[in-house]
Amino acid sequence: MSRRAAELRVADQIGAVMEFWGFKRVHGRVWSILYLSSEPLSAAEIRDRLGVSVGATSMALAELRRWGAVREVRTSARSMHFEPETNIWRLISRVLQDREKRLLDDTLELFQGAMQELKAEGAQGAAKRVEKLIWLTRLARGMLDMLTSRGELAAEDTQKLRV
Q1: What top-level class would CATH report for the domain 3-84?
Q2: Where are the domains of the chain?
Q3: In whole numbers, what is the pLDDT of the chain averaged over residues?
């Protein structure tokens, strides 16, 4: 297998993983090609390697820049090239902080409001069950905070977790 074929297989798999996480497949493919390259690449080089359109490349690069997954760099030829964020944990923690944290916060707010309504209606059994969901959501939020703040989650950290 040639180097290009191997790189494309990696890019396709990263694209599939990214798609599973709710991103576009092309985002993972573009980032992968940059990650595997020993030097920054121009948008035209990325297009050529992946066989994607000008528009798809441009939109993917714009979105990846917004997430901090790629950055623009000037080369000696003074043209715009792109390089990847190579700290994969940093990428993952940005996504966790932006998407999952927001989801957990919204969930907690909704559960707390629902619990109050259930209590007011005298539905104590349902309110108790929602209270358990609140506890679980707080636990998940605390673990997410620990995970993204230090880049790791040690077993002893869970003993200090307050929910």
Answers
A1: mainly alpha
A2: 3-84, 88-159
A3: 89
